[in-house]
Amino acid sequence: MLDYYPIYLNLMDKKAVVIGGGKVAERKIKGLIEAKAEITVVSPALTEKLHHYHLQGTITWKKKIFSADDISDAFLIITAVNDAKVSLAVKKAANPNQLLSLADHPEESNFILPSVYKQGKLNISISTSGASPILAKKIKQNLSNLYGPEYKDYVDFLYNCRKWILQEIQDPEMKKSLLSAITEQDFLTSTAREKDFKEVLESRTNQ
After folding, report:
1. d(C-alpha 150, C-alpha 189), whole Å
2. Which CATH number fits domain 1-113: 3.40.50.920, 3.40.190.10, 3.40.50.720, 3.40.109.10?
3. pTM here?
4. Which of 17, 96, 121, 167 is most buried by a 10 A CB count?
5. Which residues form the Siroheme synthase central domain (predicted)?
6. For residues 77 and 39, what is the distance between their CA atoms, to the nearest angstrom?
7. Alpha-carbon gap, residue 120 to 192, rounded angstroms
8. What angle do CA 97, 99, 104 make, to 5 degrees?
9. DSSP track, the chain
């Protein structure tokens, strides 16, 4: 079994091609839309939702069967078809430096998609390196009990607060102290985080 290198990609405006227009493709495309990729779907037909995305202009639809030129300038390629011949044709046509995921042939891919649990900016990826996607989904479900909706606003607060600290605080020890303080449990459960942060800042400044 391969040892995968975990990574988060910035796909904004990157060309992503999805081969297939069914439910599996729909799930893959949802994440690509969230990542603001430039998405082209190659398929003779689309699900109702994907057709809606096309009408909105969210995705480009090539209403056809796959051919090699469909992926010539793609940064990322995903096949989502239940057809080994098509998947292997995509594999053959792909450049070795392109990112390629074959849904029905993960062993022929150079990356796999993990199961992801999200609460706003909080993203927790779970992977069994292809050993058991079902287990990965069960772990994802368990995470919802540990990291509920309250984490969405909390992580937004951390993002904004960290940005302010890095810009405004010059002393390295003070930076470290404040960045650590805002991750304490009291800030997670607080209903007045900005006020609490000002109090912490004042107390640390006056020490």
Report:
1. 8
2. 3.40.50.720
3. 0.84
4. 17
5. 119-144
6. 10
7. 19
8. 130
9. -----------TT-EEEEE--SHHHHHHHHHHHHTT-EEEEE-S---HHHHHHHHHTSEEEE-S---GGGGTT-SEEEE--S-HHHHHHHHHHS-TTSEEEETT-GGG-S--PPEEEEETTEEEEE--TTS-HHHHHHHHHHHHHHS-THHHHHHHHHHHHHHHHHHH---HHHHHHHHHHTTSHHHHH-S-HHHHHHHHHHHHHT-
Encoding tokens for residue 153? 């606003």
Cα–Cα dist 191/78, whole Å: 43
Instruction: Tell which residue, 100, 151, 142, has the closest CA to residue 123.
Output: 151
C-beta neighbour count of 146 within 10 angstroms: 9
Closest CA to 125 of 1, 6, 16: 6
Burial environment of residue 71 by CB neighbours within 10 A (0 to 12, 13 to 18, 19 or more):
buried
Tally the residues of the chain.
207
Task: Supply the angle between the helices 48-56 and 23-34 in degrees, to the nearest 10.
Answer: 40
Contact assessment for residue 92 and residue 130, using Cβ atoms and an 8 Å cutoff:
no
For tokens 């470290």, the residue is: 176
Degrees (nearest 5) of the Cα angle 107, 109, 114?
90
Q: pLDDT at position 106, please?
A: 85
Beta bridge pairs of residue 19: 42, 79
Query: Using one digit for the tens of pLDDT, what is the confidence trace for 6-29?
Result: 999 999 999 999 999 999 999 999
